[in-house]
Write a structure and sequence with these properties.
Blueprint (H helix, E strand, L loop, with lengths): L11 H7 L2 H4 L3 H17 L5 H19 L12 H13 L1 H4 L7 H37 L4 E6 L2 E7 H25 L2 E2 L15 H8 L3 E2 L3 H6 L2 H27 L7 E2 L18 H24 L13 H25 L1 E2 L1 H8 L6 H10 L4 H18 L8 H7 L13 H7 L8 H15 L1
Parallel strand pairs: 3-4
Antiparallel strand pairs: 1-2, 5-6
Amino acid sequence: MRHGRFEESMSTLLRDYGESVSFDWRLYRHDIRGSIAHARALQKAGFLTQDEFASIEVGLNTIGEEIAAGKFTFSTDLEDIHMNIEKELTNRIGDAGAKLHTSRSRNDQVATDLRLYLRDEIVALQSGVRALQSSLVDLAHANEDVLFPGYTHLQRAQPIPLAHHLLAYVEMFDRDYGRLGDVALRMDELPLGSGALAASTLVLDRDAIAKELGFSRVTQNSLDGVSDRDFALELLSALAIVGMHLSRLSEDVVLWTTAEFGFACLSDRHSTGSSLMPQKKNPDIAELTRGKTGRLYGNLFRLLTVLKGLPMAYNRDLQEDKEAVFDSVDTALMALAVTAEMMRALVIKREVATKAASDPALLATDLADELVRRNIPFRTAHDLIGKLAAESSKTGIPLNQLPEDLIRELCPQLLIDWKSIFDPIRSLKARAAIGGPSPANVSKRLAHWKKLLG
């Protein structure tokens, strides 16, 4: 690239500072696919002979096989994956290789490569989300009859089925699956043909290139085509939300496996020990996932910061997109896989969970609801039951064992069959509104997810 315009060699510091092949080499498959499609369009437009195209195609595929086998030597002198492949191709096949870059720029070339790469990675990420959902559904199904204390403010609130709690995460991750699909839909346009910023006077059939590469449409503005990284931002945003959901699930696992909660136990395969304390069994997987969520957030803000002040159109700052994207993709894929494996092996301590969910205080709202059925305004009922709860807390007497004379004094409307209300199964069966935690609803939703996830 320097032979025509420059008289001096590039500074070694600049070479080392500006090279990207040390990380963008992973785009090689997509770079080769894009180059073959571009070469085919050049041949159809008359800029390459059939023989030249054939030698380019064979040469590029051979180079791809060597890279995959670890037999290709990359040079930082050639800056990036694009120039490394093109230079090696030209060395092997001569002038035909030198014609490959006709009517394109590295600007539209890398924009195309990155979209092709992310399109494949989104498929893998969605598969990872589905695998995690399946592990949660299987765990919920195996413990469908287990009662569990639902929490607000990390204080016990109302009894729910454990399966309902786990299925809440399945719903969360399904939104992640959909967001990833949305990114893929918006990313589904081909920038190749935009040139450096103003396309080329050597016009190729962009629609044919798009069809060969599996894009449904082409970009409609050459400036936007080379400078757009919204698709990368959207993916980083979607992965940051995936990370947030993984972190919330991990926090639950950390809490559940403490001695204080005692609701679950991690398998030995998914726990670590202490270098000092021989009794320890630590939830490091969950803790690491909470920590790695910070990387996913950081990569999103890293790229937002790179892009916020760029003038139109391409600027070298855009080279900084790839490491953030690659790291988030790698981190999310690993976090999804390890969390799915961890949840599949999680052991629920059924008796401990059921005992915690059977605390009579968790049915205080049911008492208020019963008063409403007896024509007492809810706010009045709330106040009356609140006084009973306060008395229970003060005396240490469980709510369902408060003396009858106290009930007669504070809330005489409850005297008829009031103790029968303290039945968590009865309570759950009554919570039959759509989305509620009734056993019938939970079973129906489990069946839905098992069918959808296979």
